[in-house]
Amino acid sequence: MRSFFAAFFILVSSYLHSHSHASEYFLVILVDARHLDYSNGRELLKTMVKHPSDGSKNSDVGHAWIYLHGVVDGECVVVEGGHSGELGRYQAKYFDGIMNYMDFGFANPTREQMCFPRKEPNPIKYLWETQEDGFFQHRNGKHKPTCAAKIDITKEQFDAIVAFIDPCNYSYTNYALVGNQCSSFAVQVANIAGLDLESEVTVPIPQNIRIGGEWFQLWSNPYYSAITMSSPDILEKSLIDAVNKGKAENVLPWYLKHHLPKKSIRTKFSELCCTIRMFPYRYQRARMFM
Q: CA-CA distance, 226 to 220, in Å (whole number)?
């Protein structure tokens, strides 16, 4: 077991130091909810390209991850992280894949295919694709949680969670909106800990959508008229409900105080440069849905 933790992230928790009554074994489910509009496909895409909460245009859909605390060989250990992916390394990201289908008829077009485009009758089908660049995202992945809920667990539950998240048992490589991803990962871990949470939402998808003054067909096969997927927004609501019912404890202030270090000047400058570089593309994309 020690080799497993060595492969991930080990630290001595500050929670026990600030909470003398705290259990040695506990689990925290964390969510960075972007509060997107899931009423229909167009509104979802619209709020993805420009977030309603802060106006950012990076197409971030949020994130969910875990903070698992326990004792191994007499030492306090923590594994913090979650299932992440969709980096665009091996294939187009979901939004880009849909747009590529609309423009070229291929999700990942070659130069030749760009020169000789075809019509894809179901461009929205790319949302059902599995991304193959998934990985275990250590810590919070630069996400600031909007919700953090803690539950005490037993040593047996701790061991069961460790076994579940072991890369030998859980495939991090495969990342899918309709399969294993950050929110579904957090829900499965919480279930092992005895906390039942909801994260799925069904989004109706219109057959045609107007983008930039033009109408585009999203699907011809009714199979793609709705998609059911896990969402950080739905998970956040479920966590808040669990806290309100006394099934979990709100520890967001604790996490923000002890586990969200201030960004360095170098990091802030790097993010600013990225924002400036990507602004023309993101702004043009946002205008398409105005």
A: 12
pLDDT digits (tens, 9 = 90+) for 24-49: 899 999 999 888 777 777 777 766 66
Q: What is the CA radius of gyration of the chain?
A: 21
- pLDDT tens, residue by residue, 201-239: 999 999 998 877 788 899 999 999 999 999 999 999 999
Domain count, the chain: 1
Instruction: Say which DSSP state 66 is in.
Output: E
From the list 231, 172, 181, 175, the residue with the least C-alpha distance to 203 is: 231
Range of the domain at 9: 2-287
Angle 49-53-59 from CA coordinates, rounded to 5°: 25
Query: Cα separation of 280 and 183, whole Å?
Result: 31
Token output for 262: 């201030």
